Prior knowledge:
This protein is mainly β. The chain folds into two domains: 1-38; 50-305, Single-stranded right-handed beta-helix, Pectin lyase-like (Pectate Lyase C-like), CATH 2.160.20.10. Helix content is 14%, strand content 48%. The strands form two sheets. The chain has a 20-stranded parallel beta sheet that branches. The longest helix has 36 residues, at 2-37. It is elongated. It starts with a helix and ends with a strand.
Amino acid sequence: MKNRSRKTKKRESGIIFILLLLLLYISNTQYVYQLETNPPKDTSIFSSLTPHASITITLNSDFVSLGFSGNGVFDDPYRIEGYNITTTDSYGIRIQDVTSYFRISDCLIDATDSGIYIENVINGRIDIENNTCINNLYGIRLISCIGGNLSSNVCNYNNDGIYLLDTLEMDILNNTCFANNHQGIYVSSSMNNTLYMNECHYSNYGIEIINSQNNNITQNKVYDNNFGGINLVRATNHMINNNTVYNSMSGISSTESSASIINNTCYDQWTNIYSSKSVVNVSSNLLYNGDYGVLLWNVNQSYFIL
Length: 306
């Protein structure tokens, strides 16, 4: 009995030792991963920008009274440019209910809610270019807007990098969205927008489209996201074309949606293309190093796999 008891204790000690080594390995692995995916936020490159308080514009005349150059027309928009707006206010730049053309460019914006917040601006009056929005809930947030350009912005370390709600006909081009907690680019209840040549990585989802119609997602690079690269939920008539998506749990996903998924390159994922309760045309994609190339789940509609 004593020998058995000693052997049992030795086995238990050995098991505990192995578990401790395993926990130590996991802990060290997570720490290294965190260092790789969350490098220091060096803002010294913005030292040449002019410090500025938060900006709120709700009337066309506010552009003039606040001293911004331009005339508010297509060829000469009002210009907000070259500022360092680091503030504890909710919004770095908030523009709402105006009809003038304006351009926001070359700014660093660090606020609490939204770096750049635009609401109810229509007819192509929005031009947001080459800004860096960090440490906000939303890097750039557009609500109820029609027409405009978001290009070459950097939206890092926010909850959502770029956020569109009830917004139409925006060109979202060549933006970088890195290490955002939720989505790199999030589009909800919006239609006829183009997402082109953006780079979205190290978020939960690179690009997520929900309850939206007729958006075009082309030539984006989406990688190293926790759950999904490009994710459609209740989204109809979408074109997903020529994107490169890799190293996420799921590459391109479609749930209760309709989409053409064509000429994409997807690899190093559990599922490279996943579709549930959707109508999809999957054609000419390059898929490799996944547990599943194309996974169809809970099928209750027609599928066209070419």
